[in-house]
Structure formats: C-alpha cells, structure tokens
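Fig. S4 source data, part A: sequence.
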Amino acid sequence: MNPDFMRSLLKEQPFVPFRIFLSNGGFHVVKHPENAIVMKTRIILVYPDTDSVRFVSLLHVNEIRLKTHAEINSWRLPDGKREGPRT
C-alpha cells in the first residue's frame, strides 16, 4: 500500500473510519486519525481502549474498506473483541 494514500485517508474531512485488511487474513480498525501514524514502510496503530499498539508493514496491506458510523458498532477484531465505539 502506498503511504501517501494512507495519509490521505487519515486527513479526510470529515474523517471516515476504515478497516485495513492484511495478507494473513487479519484486519485492523482505524476509528480516529490520531490512532494511526503512517511511516515510510509501515503504519503504527494505537488502540487506547485496550492500551495496545500494532506495527503493520504496508507491504501486507491488501485492502482498505471505509465504513459508515452505524457499521463500526458491529466491527470486531479477529479474536472476537469489539473495536467499535462503546454505546
């Protein structure tokens, strides 16, 4: 994935949350632009709710899916933990 494209997604106004799908079949959710930092060859993802950080190689990003706010509530990580906003 091109880092400039990833940066453009984070700068969108209004911001649209999205999922990053990886070559290993997993995915990560970006709910807020401050939860991601795009480097030259990787993206750093921060999950404040779980106090965790993920380092993802941009080479392994296969797909980006933008979501509506209503759809984010149903998002779950591969381990079943909910990553959508708390209601």
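Fig. S4 source data, part B ends here. The helical segments are 3-11, 69-72.
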